[in-house]
Design goal:
alpha+beta, six-stranded antiparallel β-sheet, two-stranded antiparallel ribbon, flat
Length: 262
């Protein structure tokens, strides 16, 4: 019996097969990477939409409750539950260095992220009409920006003349609950933060301005809020939490109108 010779793959055929597998594998990897990026964007947009909805709700409620102040114009209160103006990352890092894996007590959380009263800011509404044609510095003078222009309930600077935080820092749920030590990495951008500015609206009503032909009066009680949401925030280990610079990693930006009671 004669055995037939079995022909194997030639080098050319082998290279072609490897190229086909490489192209297919690269396509699959690219598909996974694109899907991961889209998933991350969806998470960010969902979180940004939640923050926007909450800020608008809290501001709308606050602007219907002016607080009389004998030292000046009425004050308005802004308090975002779960946001910190006093976050002290150095305390967090010290806790992790000791291997402490016990649940955070309310006192520890207050020391690390500030008490609710410390994270509450008050503000006055701007009085000058906004003018987009002005220089940047002059435009900023006609806006109120929070949190860095926040006041206490007497109308004084909330940060005692020092440098305030640029953003409201939203701490992750695990930190607010108790499991701060699980999976924490200060570089993984799992925090979110936001800031916003308030300016008078340039919308006009139906009433005509006196002695001004063809011009209508501005709506005095209508204001524009410009909100910026960021993914994460930067801090230095030795920093106490009041002079932290944000990386300005904006993931969402929007404007909306609110009405105020004076």
């Amino acid at each position: 019996m004669h055995l037939r010779d079995k022909r194997g793959l030639t080098l050319t055929e082998l290279l072609i097969a490897m190229a086909i597998f490489a192209l297919g594998g690269a396509s699959i990897v690219a598909l996974f990477l694109a899907n991961a990026k889209l998933s991350a964007q969806a998470v960010n947009m969902t979180r940004a939409a939640e923050i926007t909805r909450n800020v608008r709700s809290y501001l709308t409620s606050s602007l219907t409750r002016p607080i009389s102040n004998p030292n000046g114009a009425p004050l308005y209160r802004f308090d975002y539950p779960g946001a910190s103006l006093k976050f002290r990352p150095a305390l967090l890092l010290q806790r992790e260095a000791t291997g402490n894996q016990t649940a955070l007590t309310p006192d520890e959380l207050a020391e690390m992220a500030g008490k609710p009263t410390e994270n509450t800011a008050y503000f006055r509404l701007p009085t000058d009409t906004f003018d987009a044609t002005l220089e940047l510095g002059d435009r900023n003078e006609r806006m109120v920006e929070l949190p860095d222009e926040g006041m206490d309930d007497t109308g004084n600077n909330l940060f005692d003349g020092g440098i305030g935080p640029e953003v409201y820092r939203l701490l992750p749920d695990t930190m607010r609950d108790s499991a701060i030590y699980r999976g924490y990495d200060p570089d993984d951008r799992m925090f979110y933060s936001f800031d916003f500015s308030i300016r008078r609206s340039v919308s006009r009503g139906s009433e005509m301005m006196p002695n001004m032909l063809g011009q209508r009066v501005f709506l005095e009680d209508l204001f524009v809020v410009h909100l910026r949401v960021y993914r994460g925030f930067d801090y230095r280990e030795e920093n106490a939490g009041t002079a932290v610079e944000n990386e300005r990693n904006i993931i969402y930006e929007t404007s909306f109108m609110v009405a105020a009671t004076r």
